[in-house]
Write a structure and sequence with these properties.
Blueprint: H1 3-11, E1 19-24, H2 25-28, E2 50-54, E3 59-63, E4 74-81, E5 83-89, E6 131-136, E7 140-143, E8 148-153, E9 157-164, H3 167-172, H4 178-189, H5 195-206, H6 213-221, H7 224-227, H8 230-235, H9 250-273
Antiparallel strand pairs: 1-2, 2-9, 3-8, 4-7, 4-9, 5-6, 5-8
Helix pairs in contact: 4-9
Amino acid sequence: MSFATYVTSHWAVNDSSVYLASLPIVKYFPALMETYVVPPPAASQGKAGNLWLGSAGQITPVHYDFSTREPGMDGLHAVVAGTKIFRLFDPAANLGRIPRRRSWWRWHQGAIDVLDPDLDTHPGFAEAAWDDVELAAGDMLFIPKLWWHHVRTTTPAAAVNFWFQSRASEELKLTVHRLVMEEHLASAAAMVVPRDRLANIVAFYAKSAPPTGDALDRYLAAPARVMALDAFLDIFAAIGADRAGAEADPDLAARLRAHVATWIDAHLSAHLLQ
């Protein structure tokens, strides 16, 4: 069965459950590249766009966009067909109100159903503020870096999104979003990771063999030690890398990395004194 046949026979049927998330178009559907223009600055950073397909009722739980290579991304989400509703949460206005998952690299994902919140477990969410935005075919939404968002597909929908870096939003991490970043780091420092998994994580960032025995116990006692490794800190300097294109700013990258390193050092010092 061809992909086109699958889409027309399954995706557009309301009682079918279909979800295709963030599939790189340049890799899987290069012919589609001729049907749209990649907006700047995504184009200058070599971003070609990602395809999304979802049946009616599909839900993407609340989260903000963060990857293992980039410390949060700005995004553009363009709906090609169908309708979606985005629920957007300004992170600076919702500090401490959206609980986070605690497993490795899931700190940017909420641990709450924003459509049916358990306020007994998470009473802070009662004070959360948000805006709902409905998108239809031809609409494009800008999702600022670090903004929480929940997505509900209300009719079978197709969309293309673009993630990119910008100096302006990175600068906000040192001003308006300073506490937001520190909340992110605090959640990372409180990570819950199985012993074997943590050993592999340390090996990846330390570029060494997995630690064992007492060496691994030190990381288990204070997981933030992983965050103090150079390769982990370098993630927060992504705006200085060549892949940031015209937005690259090595000075800003150095200031961001230094801020994160200072926070981690202070956290570890406080933890070790307890």
